[in-house]
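In this supplementary section we document a worked example of the pipeline. Step one takes a protein sequence of length 347 as its only input; no multiple sequence alignment statistics are reported here. Step two produces a three-dimensional model, which step three serialises into structure tokens for compact storage. The input and output of this example are shown verbatim.
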Amino acid sequence: MKYNFHKSKLYQTLARVSEGSFARYLSFHLHQLFQKLNKYPNDIVIETASVCNLNCTICRSVKAELGRKNRFMSLAIFKKIIDDIAPICNTIGVSFCGEPLLNRDIFQIIRYASDRGMCVSMLTNGVLLNADARMGILDSGLNFMAISMDGATKHTYESIRIGGSFDTLVENIRLLVKERNQRKLPHPSIDLQMVITQKNIHEVDAFAKLARGLGVERAYLKSLHIDRSREDVDYVKNLEKDYFVNSTTLPARYMIDKKGNLELKDKGLCPQKVKTPVITTDGKVLPCCFDIFGEHVLGDIANQRFLDIWNSSKYINFRRNLAKHRRLPMCANCLPSDYKTINKILF
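The serialised model returned by step three reads:
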């Protein structure tokens, strides 16, 4: 407990450092060190919404029936989760298969975790960042926000992120940065990300220029993920033929084998060491964010403590014998062992 106390205090301090590449570098590497030293997960994803307002062409979550109900996490369940994990975990994300800003309790959710010393991150499509949402975010104590953009022009963005408005998104980001700076708030740090595909590869430079002009802290490219855990021939062929970029200079997690098929670059052991669980909107504990269908439920927060789930023989056997050695379909195409190659930071 003494170790966790000091770790928590250090993360609270780092989370409140405003800007600077050294602070980001130090926080990242200390976090990696804690992951290696700590037998418990220090990154836990909590799904606050399994509903989305967009219908993106590359997103598996909206292209297939998840087999899970579309819902929002209640504030009561979220509080129970945070109370359970606070002694062992310092970092959480509040996004998984849906858009967190659709949850009407999202700002209270973030505030509760932040008040417990958590470093809280959010992945959002940014379309719903209107005036009220921006105020809610800035008042919530959110530490990091990543906004998925996937295009630097109206045509490209709106052809991939179906239902989104490029002009609205750009204005939302501009105003969020402006209002945060006017209030002299140290956070949230704001990143823009673009999944690199054949549809937007010609806009990499324009994306970096746009991001700089909006005043965000960081812009980066992400590699395309093709989910084959439940074979969907049309979905997979479409991504392989019309979206996958075969490049040695841009982030890509796949290579083309001698038969012309896509395969993961490096299928060594799980790079995350099966230590990044997801808790779904209804409190089910999943092994990681690649189990979007909820096929491997390892416990239920509604009637179990998280540590009891984590230390159960079922979870231990799963980590040691299945996931770590990639013996599941969802593990075959997720992350290469050298996972640092799947992103490219532009600035």
